[in-house]
Write a structure and sequence with these properties.
Layout: E1 15-16, E2 19-20, E3 22-23, H1 34-47, H2 57-77, E4 85-88, H3 91-106, E5 112-116, H4 125-134, E6 137-141, H5 151-157, E7 162-168, H6 180-188, E8 193-197, H7 209-212, E9 216-220, E10 231-235, H8 237-241, E11 253-256, E12 261-263, H9 277-293, H10 295-313, E13 319-322, E14 331-336, H11 341-350, E15 353-354, E16 356-358, H12 363-368, E17 374-378, H13 385-401
Parallel strand pairs: 3-15, 5-6, 5-7, 7-8, 8-9
Antiparallel strand pairs: 1-2, 4-10, 9-10, 11-12, 13-14, 14-17, 16-17
Helix pairs in contact: 1-9, 2-9, 3-4, 10-13, 11-13
Amino acid sequence: MMNLYKKDFPILNQTVHDKTLVYLDSSASNQKPEVVIQTVSQYERMHHANVHRGVYELSRRATGAFEETREAVKQFIHANSLQEIIFTSGTTAAINLVAQSYGRTHFKAGDEIIVSMMEHHSNIVPWQMIAEATGAILKVIPINLAGELDLDAYRLLLSPRTKLVAVAHVSNVLGTINPIQEITRLAHAHQAVVLVDGAQAVAHIPVDVQALDCDFYAFSSHKAYGPTGVGILYGKRALLENMPPYQGGGEMVEQVTFAKTTYNTLPYKFEAGTPNIANVIGFKAAIDYVKHIGFTRVVEHDQALLAYATEQLTTLPGIKLIGTARQKIGIISFVIENVHAHDIGTILDHEGIAVRVGNHCAMPLMQFYQEAACVRASFAIYNSIADIDALMMGLKTVQRYFN
């Protein structure tokens, strides 16, 4: 499998410990193509100014480019209107916005919030905090050993007390693609709203929030070939209209007096202060890059790498795969018998191979699998069969070292 895209990513053209860099940690953060780097640089060099503030030319340019990204995001996830696209600092900030704004005003003692066993801490802790503040109760959807949600158990958890379901579109550890349409349909039958953590999905599968019918969808630029420090919260307009602002300051106001403040319209009501302008503008270049490749190619490439990696890894003795769901993206997590994950990661690093090791901000999930830590290799459009072969050689070095 020849990789046509690696050349677009300048960071990959280097050596680490005198070995060619093999980057297999894209679930933590994708690398950026040259077009994104150049877009950010060009803004900083030629167009930098604050947005929505100035009448002068630089400010008009910056504002135009900034709002073009909002339009690009709207089209990318098939939102209904620009008012439904809120810029945040990341997925975590987007989830916290919903928890603090929607949760504080809608939850009361005895209400129930449902999350799943496979959630990232960012989709657990904010709901625990709100539950503690409001008296709501957190319920957990169990999973099977393959890493798939138990939908029968989910149905039993739902009740008139259920106010919100928060679930990952794709697990950051298991790679499992969850059936969001069905999860949402069942939640809506109980008048509950649904928030989807889409951080791991947007670079791997096409996302249509209207088809999913979720009420909120959160994701980050840097997990979709864009810059860090930029997140997106999609929310259905009717819900966002009735939510109070999460933070106060400039931009989110219409009129301020010492007696009373009135708030700006959507989406600006939730965008207090100067945003991460350069990186928001850079995110549009990332979206355009992915759209140019097309999700048909993205998915085919992802699935080919996943199939090959799974086949190769299962030939090694003492390997245990974590997560073998029928529907997965290019994430493969594993442990090696009698070898700590951090030792594996260190040895692989000296072979030039970057993987993630640890609990992956998913401690409850790791406890379910009775593992303190595991190794995660995650793939992107710039990876190839050669990268997986390098991983296999590195793991054989690990096994020789530990005999």
